[in-house]
Amino acid sequence: MKTFWTVIFLITLSFWVQSQNCSYTLKGKVVDFHNGDPLIYATIQVIDSEIEVYSDFDGNFEINNLCKGKIELKITHPDCQDLVYPILIEGDTFEKIKLEHHLEDLGEILITGKKRLQKSKTGQEETLKSKTLEKYSSSSIGDALKELSGVSTLNTGNSVVKPVIQGLHSSRVLMMNHGVRMQDQEWGAEHAPNIDLNSAESITVVKGASALQYGGDAIGGAVIVEPEKIPVKDSLFGKTILSGSTNGRGGSVTTSLTKSYESGWYGNVQGTFKKFGDYKAPDYVLSNSGNEEKDVSLRFGLNKFSSGFDVFYSYYNTEIGILRSSHIGNVNDLIRAINSREPQVVKDFTYNINPPKQDVEHHLARVKYYKRFEELGKLNIQYDYQLNNRLEYDFRRGDDKGRPSVDLELQTHTLSTNFKFDAKNEYQFNVGLNGNYQVNFPDPATEVKRLIPDYEQYKFGVFATGEYKINNDWLAEAGLRYDYTRLNAEKFYFKTRWEELNYNEDFSDIVVYEEGNQLFTKPEFNFNNFSATGGLRYTFNQFSLNGNYALASRAPNPSELFADGLHHSAAVIELGDIRFNSETSHKFSLNFSKDEGNFNFTISPFYNYIEDFLLMEPSGVDETIRGAFPIWKYKQVNARMFGVDLNWNYRISSNFNYFGKFAYVNGRDTKNNSALINMPPANLSNSIRFQQTDWHNLQLSITGDFVARQKNYPDNNFYYDVLENGEYQSTLVDISTPPDQYFLLGFDASTTFHPFKKGSMEVSFYINNLLNTSYRDYLNRLRYYADNLGRNFMLQLKFNY
After folding, report:
1. How buried is 593 (Cβ within 10 angstroms: 0-12 exposed, 13-18 middle, 19+ buried)?
2. What mean pLDDT, rounded, does the chain reach?
3. Which CA distances in Å does 761 have to 200, 392, 457, 701, 752?
4. Where does the signal sequence lie (predicted)?
5. E-strand spans in 693-791?
6. 3-state SS of the chain: helix, strand, coil percent to 5?
7. What string of H, E and C letters represents the secondary structure of 108-164?
């Protein structure tokens, strides 16, 4: 009986199959969702069958002899994410299938002929990749950026490091962290960026204001910190880096873990801890120079081609000791310290961080949403919030012991949006606007005269940029931006200071009332700033030539306007002026490069003329109840800067490579026909690298860095009457003469092992200042008191998993 029913079932099934109509045809077209262009040679496969066809030159395909019912197609293309596409066949059918072709938005960059996406197509820019950044895992972002030509650093000791781009720094250098413009009291020359270097996958430096999307006031340039692109696939991966150093007898640990899904969901957590004690110059301990840092960041979101969102939060906290010898008790000791070759205070090594010191905490929260519109472009909307709290401690006794001398709380809210019209291959446009509200609160509980006052600041900006591909060899780029700034402040002035500056004649209307020997004022300022850029790029054979003009305008920052007192972490008295106007920069730059073959190079000359350039120069010393300190005054001049950045490399053989870079900048005050202060000296770096992949990817390199003596500097030396043996002696205070040239030798070695089934372990060894050279750097604001760091051995272990 069982056999009988089996035979009946098979006969019935065969009749049903024969009765099906399998003569239907599916015609279709595979196009790019982004711009509607046909995708050539896409593979179209019917799942669970052997049917496979390819799209033709117009993106068309055809599949014959299909039966009625539901089928699933798998469409693949070399530059696209695979797509499973269900279709219901009820007759002859036509389907237009759209693939997600712009995989850079999905963390899978597959752009032929490009190593990265440029921020400015005709400006000067360079990028540091993760391999280089990991080398500086226990250092600062400023230390890492010195790897690039034309980028130097302005230091306050060893741990406070600010990037200087072609001679410009602080408020003129815009810092973008995970899509957020940093608001961390960047106006201070001794305020380092509050960014954990280990949260970055790459850092791009745009030299000059050619990238208008990020801001029109970036006269010096922009530093763009970008996170790792998370792929759209099921994965779990991470890394941990352990570093230990002999100089400072400390180290760091950083770790990150990422989980992603094929659906587009992802999450990432990352954290860093650093701890160092007193650092050491070749001949003595740099007392009270240790630092400690604690960072954590969280990130999650949904990454789909058509739409998605990204949420990011970071916490940054650092405690930094300020060299004890930079804080002096009286004028005699201050002058003796400046004119001496050794620090006045040298103690035994310790991990303790005592006053003078900084304690900085920074919170950053951002949420971003994007939506892509078919054959049009991409919309981005973003809100971010930042809270920065800066504490600066000085020597205080009695009830004030342990109380900060400076307590600044800065809150910033920013809302921004932009739409990028990028559906056409020949041209692209990007338009956007942003609004910003900021409030600064210097806590009066310090019971110390506030360096900068309470203020509220409102900013609004709108921009439009575009690029046009004239032909395969020529590309044009242009942009325009407008920024409005309103600043409302509340400030007390001593009457003597008010009258000394003749404010009683020009600003009597902002005085609200008198209180003892002080005036309470409410100054209000409005600034309207315009910026623009335009450039051309020409490519031929293995070469490319870029030319760019950038107009940038920057409103004075609160420090330049209002600074009025002792800046404790800088150990100087700073004085501003509310008469200052906006700076206006006109920068012309060229970039000529060759990036194919055994020998490659880049030559990047520039010329920058800045009207109403704001600078701060020393003008004497003053003795306060806190001690004796140099006086630095802001002033406004016209300035011009010109220079050149050079990079080159030569592939000597399959195992040896040679790298070199050179940078020079010349800055001059055209109003007073004098050199500008704090211009980086000419510097040259040469490196030889050996690599043998068969020996566990062994890499060895030796690097020589030469920094010339700065010969162009303003003479701000002065004489001061010093009481010696009961009589006043006129003594020269040399605060201008730059230190001598110096040469530093460094050594790097690394190799990779695979001790686990999955992942790897990389071991690296570095020696900085191999010859233990004693030197002082012109751009170190504490060079008056001590030498720079001596020899340092560092061992680093990196685990990938």
Report:
1. middle
2. 89
3. 20, 40, 49, 20, 6
4. 1-19
5. 698-707, 718-724, 727-733, 742-753, 760-768
6. 10, 55, 35
7. CCCCCCCCCCCCCCCCEEEEECHHHHHHCCCCCHHHHHCCCCCEEEEEECCCEEEEE
The fold of the 223-800 domain, in CATH, is Maltoporin; Chain A (2.40.170)
In our burial notation (b when 16+ CB lie closer than 10 A, e otherwise), range 306-324 reads eebbbebbbbbbbbbbbbb
Amino acid of residue 705: D
* pLDDT computed for residue 469 by the predictor: 92
Higher pLDDT, 233 or 410: 410
pLDDT of residue 11: 47
Q: Measured between alpha carbons, how far is 103 from 109 in angstroms, rounded to an integer? A: 6
- Mean pLDDT of the 773-797 span: 94
**Residue 22 dihedral angles phi and psi, to the nearest 5°:** -110, 45
Could you tell me which of 789, 616, 783 has the C-alpha nearest to residue 156?
A: 783
Give the gyration radius of the chain's Cα atoms: 31
Q: Hey, is 333 helix, strand or coil?
A: helix
Q: Which fold has domain 23-101?
A: Immunoglobulin-like (2.60.40)
pLDDT, average across residues 545-568: 89
> What pTM does this model have?
0.88
pLDDT digits (tens, 9 = 90+) for 265-298: 999 999 999 999 999 999 999 999 999 999 999 9
Instruction: Work out whether the CA dihedral 155, 159, 163, 166 comes out positive or negative.
Output: positive
Contacts of 741 (CB under 8 A, 6+ apart): 681, 706, 707, 708, 709
- Collapsed DSSP state (helix, strand, coil) of residue 48: coil
User: Which pairs count as long-range contacts for 681-685, CB under 8 Å and 24+ apart, including other chains?
Assistant: 681/707, 681/708, 681/709, 681/710, 681/738, 681/741, 681/778, 682/707, 682/708, 683/152, 683/707, 683/708, 684/660, 685/660, 685/661
Pick from 233, 361, 357: which is nearest to 294 by CA?
361
- The pLDDT tens digits for 383-418 are 999 999 999 998 888 888 889 988 999 999 999 999
Alpha-carbon distances, residue 113 vs 117, 375, 702 (angstroms): 11, 23, 31
Q: Where in the chain is the domain with CATH 2.60.40.1120?
A: 23-101
Token look-up 């106007």 returns 581
- Per-residue model confidence (pLDDT) at position 111: 32
| Residue in 158, 67, 648, 75 with CA at minimum distance from that of residue 358 | 158
The encoded tokens of residue 121 equal: 């197509």
In whole angstroms, what is the distance from residue 589 CA to residue 543 CA? 17
H or E element that contains 631: strand 627-651
**Amino acid making up residue 590:** L
Mean per-residue pLDDT, 160-186: 93
For residue 479, give the nearest of 457, 464, 493, 468 by alpha carbon: 464
Characterize the bridge pairing of strands 564-567 and 572-575: antiparallel
Among 236, 252, 33, CA closest to 134? 252
DSSP 3-state of 377: strand
Q: Which residue has the tokens 């338009």?
A: 431
Residue limits of CATH 2.40.170.20 in the chain: 223-800
CA distance from start to end of the chain? 61
